[in-house]
Amino acid sequence: MVRLGLLLTLALILATCTFPQDPNSTLDRVRGGTLRVGVTEHRPWVQRLDGDEPAGVEVELVRHFAEELGTSVQWVWGAEQEHLEALERYELDLAIMGLTQATPWKTRVGLTQPYYTSRITVGVPASMSSPPELAGVAVAVKEGSVIAAYLEEEEARPMRVSEPAQAEALVAAATWELDRLGLTPTDFELHSEKHVMAVPPGENGWLVALEKFLAARQSQVEQALQQQASP
Amino acid sequence: MRTPPPYRLPVEKQKQLQRAERLEWVTIFFLITIAGVMYLATGSSQAMKTAWLEDVLSLVPPIVFLVALRFRTKPPNEQFPYGYRRLISVAFLSAATALLIMGLYMLYDSAMKLIMQEHPTIGLREIWGWQLWSGWIMIAALIYSAIPPVILGKKKVPLAKKLHEKTLHTDAAMNKDDWLTALAAMVGVLGVGFGWWWADAVAAGVISVQVVKDGYENVTDSITDLIGQRPTRVGQGDEPELAPLQLVDRLKDLDWVEDATVRLREEGDVFTGEAYIIPRYDHHLLEHLRQAYQVIHTGDWRLYDIAVVPVATFEEAWSDPANDRGDHSTRPEKVSEKPAV
Question: Do A215 and B197 count as a contact with CB atoms less than 8 A apart?
């Protein structure tokens, strides 16, 4: 009987107040004031236009989120480590930079659930058909990109070039990148990247509010990527 | 060299042992499912991680029990004239030591999380199409993790007492206490939900302390068992069994017995050792010794392979004939000063 009473009391408390709550009241503070966002350029997720104006897929999402919260945004440009260290110590409320779930920072800051998963694959020109397998096949890839390593895992032959668009060959990149280049993505799965945003650690109320917003926006992300893609 | 035949449980005890064995297999099955469910539900909550570790560790006692059961029925042979009944105590000591060390590590880990002020991030999780706060998923997993062990534990405790099986009893007691672990972790997760980040680390600490306590008690129990402590009651620490005293009474009831004393120790679930009897008279001694042996081994099912030693006095039983008188000393003599002839 006592246990039932306790359970009901708990249910009542949970129904009336917001749950979960923030140890540092981030959600309340942001609602009442400003949203401090750390941005680092990483096309097409975050782009730095003239006059330090931010643009990009993640930037647009954050702008809409801020509108919903009725708060103004303070954009802070900087490097990844700077922002994540600041985030860890609650000097920022949010950090966006095309971060993925594979980041080693996941133990030090809070990450949202993935709001979009990029697929890295090989694209063929419309005239060609997909090769039966990748072993021994020459595939163009942007130099200095980790995608070359994924190709080598599949025993393909990466051609590291500065402009894959001009390679006139198979290209390895994310599907939305391939769309931009007018190539058809094949079924080969080189890698998948789960895109996330970073929040201060333990601010669970804030995190849940953001995650709820992002969960409803999956199709918009796909659209935004297409738009960004067209030159 | 001749060796005694292996110990055989009375028929009703065999049935109880079979039931215990079945329950242990069921326990292992459920613990594996629980470990799987907990693993999937655990995010970055220290309390969940600790509770999961505790669940995985509770797989050790039933496995030890089942493996030891296989070995201890092996008959004594020339190499192991006392048989293999002690294996279970050794196995249990190793398992208990592992538990203790893991518990200490878990306590250290939780304390560090508290000291370093790590705030656990617990956000949404998609499950079967729904977006739920991960904390609810964790709590659901914790509820599941508490139910089978508590039910199984309640069934095993009386069996362990009837079979005088300390390993089984420890395992059952740990199962029964699983509801406490689950409750602590739930309070921790809910605490985080209410904004108290430290609730998680504190709950993890509480669970770790329980594991350390269990590990420590089991280690000391195993050690005292192995160094030949007198038989103790199952589940009641060092409280002595009455069997030795009862045995002495039964022997003294025999008309040819002047006085008797026994020295018993536990070997797994049996009591073995020596019974020293001062007979009133020498004649028919072999018959009387045989009778004494029967009386000893039919009185209590736990008594096995007890040596019956007839003595004139108890002091004589434990005298050291080599060192009693100086002229029979076995110590090396000093080199004599006598000159060689």
Answer: no
Residue A231's pLDDT band (boundaries 50, 70, 90)?
A: very low
What pLDDT, on a 0 to 100 scale, did the predictor assign at position A16? 61
Say which residues have a Cβ less than 8 Å from residue B29's Cβ, sequence separation at least 6: none
What token pair was written down for A41? 């350029």
Cβ contact, residue pair B118, A201, below 8 Å: yes
- C-beta separation of B42 from B125 below 8 A: no
pLDDT of residue B166: 84
Q: How far apart are CA A72 and CA A96, in angstroms?
A: 16
Instruction: Please name the member of A111, A199, A202 whose beta carbon is closest to the beta carbon of B197.
Output: A202
DSSP B109-169: HHHHHHHTTPPP---EEEETTEEEEHHHHHHHHHHHHHHHHHHHHHHHHHHHHHHT-HHHH
- Chain B residues inside the 8 Å CB shell of A207: 121, 123-124
Mark yes or no for CB contact A207/B123 under 8 Å. yes
Token pair for residue A191? Answer: 């890698």
**How far is Cα A105 from Cα A129, in angstroms, rounded to an integer?**
40
Q: Are A62 and A73 in contact (CB under 8 A)?
A: yes
Per-residue pLDDT tens over the stretch B126-184: 888 888 899 999 999 999 999 999 999 999 999 999 998 888 888 898 888 888 889 99
Spell out which chain A residues touch chain B, with contact meaning CB-CB distance below 8 angstroms.
Answer: 10, 19-23, 107, 109-113, 199, 201-205, 207-208, 211-212, 215
A159 contact partners, CB below 8 Å, separation of at least 6? A138, A139, A140, A141, A167, A169
Write out the two tokens for B213. Answer: 């306590």
> Average model confidence (pLDDT) for chain A?
89
pTM of the prediction? 0.83
Return the biggest CA–CA distance within chain B.
Answer: 108
Q: Which residues of A touch B125 (CB under 8 A)?
A: 113
pLDDT score of B88 more than 90: no
| Size of chain B, expressed as the number of residues it contains | 341
The reported pLDDT for the residue numbered B145 is 93
b/e per residue, B219-229, with b = 16+ CB within 10 A? bebbebbbeee
Q: Is B253 exposed, middle or buried (0-12, 13-18, 19+ CB in 10 A)?
A: exposed
Calculate the average pLDDT of chain B. 88
Q: Do A21 and B131 touch (CB under 8 A)?
A: no
Buried/exposed code over B185-199 (b: 16+ C-beta within 10 A; e: otherwise):
bbbbbbbbbebebbb
Residue A96 in this model has a pLDDT that exceeds 90: yes
Q: With 60 as the cut, is the pLDDT of residue B340 above it? A: no
